[in-house]
Amino acid sequence: MSVQPIEVENTGDPVPRNAEGIAAALSGARRMEFYRELLSAAPQDAEAVLRRWWCEAVLDVEQARGDQLTVAALAGTLPLRSVASVIEHRRAAGLPVE
């Protein structure tokens, strides 16, 4: 029996919290919509626009990662680990293995 690892790296935000980072994470049409909304916003509303579009950008990035996992699973190319190696890893980290 084997399991697939789910590696969760806590490297901070998946999308930088600025206009450049948000735009880079969005597709072409959505990027243009973001820029139009940001450029037409009053200065006091710009932060709310950035916050909303940052959330949209994070969702897009996470969906792309999920799509990559799905493709790899269907192709049978996900890396596998044995249950014994997972248990040993958890013991070494001081985590419960029950």
Short description:
The protein is mostly helical and 98 residues long.
Descriptive report:
- The chain has 98 residues and is mainly α.
- It has one domain (16-92).
- It contains 4 helices and 2 strands, in the order βαααβα.
- A two-stranded antiparallel sheet has the order 1-2.
- Helix 1 (19-25) runs antiparallel to helix 2, helix 1 runs parallel beside helix 3 (46-75) and helix 2 runs antiparallel to helix 3 (46-75).
- The chain is elongated, with a radius of gyration of 19 Å.
- It starts with a strand and ends in a 6-residue tail after the last helix.
- The model has no long low-confidence stretch (mean pLDDT 86).
Nearest-integer average pLDDT? 86
The total strand number stands at 2
- Which strand order do you get reading across the main beta sheet? 1-2
Distance between the termini: 17 Å
Element layout with pairings:
Layout: E1 2-3, H1 19-25, H2 28-40, H3 46-75, E2 81-82, H4 83-92
Antiparallel strand pairs: 1-2
Helix pairs in contact: 1-2, 1-3, 2-3
